[in-house]
Design brief:
mainly alpha, 88% helix, transmembrane helix, transmembrane, Inner membrane protein, membrane
């Protein structure tokens, strides 16, 4: 998880450095968060069984 967080922060910094629009960055962050939550939910549901 720590490595993923570092890579994600690095990705955000690169996005701003490259001049991405704020909405584009927020859209990508939203997709990333939804994807992460989806994976966590799947893992938790698998753990219940």
């Amino acid at each position: 998880m720590i490595n993923i967080s570092k890579d994600f922060l690095y990705y955000i910094r690169n996005s701003f450095d490259q001049g991405y629009h704020l909405m584009e960055t927020l859209r990508r962050m939203t997709i990333f968060v939804i994807g992460t939550l989806g994976v966590l939910i799947l893992v938790l549901m698998e753990g219940d069984y």
